[in-house]
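Weekly modeling sync, notes
Attendees: S.R. (lead), two postdocs, one rotation student

Agenda item 3: backlog of single-chain predictions. S.R. asked that every request posted to the team notebook include the full sequence so nobody has to chase files. The rotation student volunteered to paste the first one in as an example of the format we agreed on. Action items at the bottom.

Example entry:
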Amino acid sequence: MMDAPTDNPRVNVGGLIAVSAVLLAVFLWTHWLTAVELFREWQINDNYSVGQLVPLAAIYLIWANRDSLRGLRLTACWWGVLVILFAQGVRIVGLMTLFESAERYAMVLTAVGVVLLVAGWQVSWRLKWVLAFLFLMVPLPGRIHTMISAPLQDQATTGAVFLLEVLGVTVDRTGHIIVLNDVTELAVAEACSGLRMLTAFVVVASVLAGVVDRPMWQRVAVVVSSVPIAIVCNIIRLVVTAFLFMWFDSDLAETFFHDFAGLTMMPLAVVMMMGELWVLSRLEIVDEPAGQPSTV
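Predicted structure, as returned to the notebook:
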């Protein structure tokens, strides 16, 4: 008796590995210079140094969700070719206009297209969060960087002045320069805007959202909340730095701001996010049966 046909045919593992290897080799060859320049910027630009952790975090997210990937059908999806072609169009525009960010985003789009082409729609859709996460490894374009950095710098200065005054410190502000108790001068430079903290917290929040077993709206809420959390943590860092300037010396304050503060603010942000998840877990909607009175 012949076996009944199955809806999930056996995957040609050897062919899949061969095709994947060829596509990976072509991908690395065509985007090698872009990847090298991107890695170089991660090393010299502190605001986006967290980008080098994004590929590693993406691999971890795939591993953490391995159970949900088991049993999914691996089949080529030719829509991936269109995604790859679109990515190459974006790359050509970047090359013609000398817009480096377009080349970098095209590299990520190409990776997404390769996954869709090789693994198919089911796997790609299950990994949609991870694939979107990959875009965080690309530094913001210069114009967007300026649009975000300047308001962050203003917000950091305003928040620090407000909190210092609440704590009893006399503060005079001129632009981004504040004078503490008419003696100590502190400049809130662009490096103090908190953009580095913002990019790092968004990545951490995205990883956290990718591993917790929560509804999608709660995951999105955690990622979105990383922005105000980063602003609050940066203001706290500035205030602590201001007190160190007043009580001790500038060398200690500079060391705290650039070194120790980063180690303390990240755990604080994670605690805030976990607290947010705890609060969200208590927000349950109870459906009352029609025609019955609500219980008190």
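Discussion: group reviewed the output briefly. The mean pLDDT is 81.
Action items: rotation student to repeat for the remaining queue; S.R. to check formatting next week.
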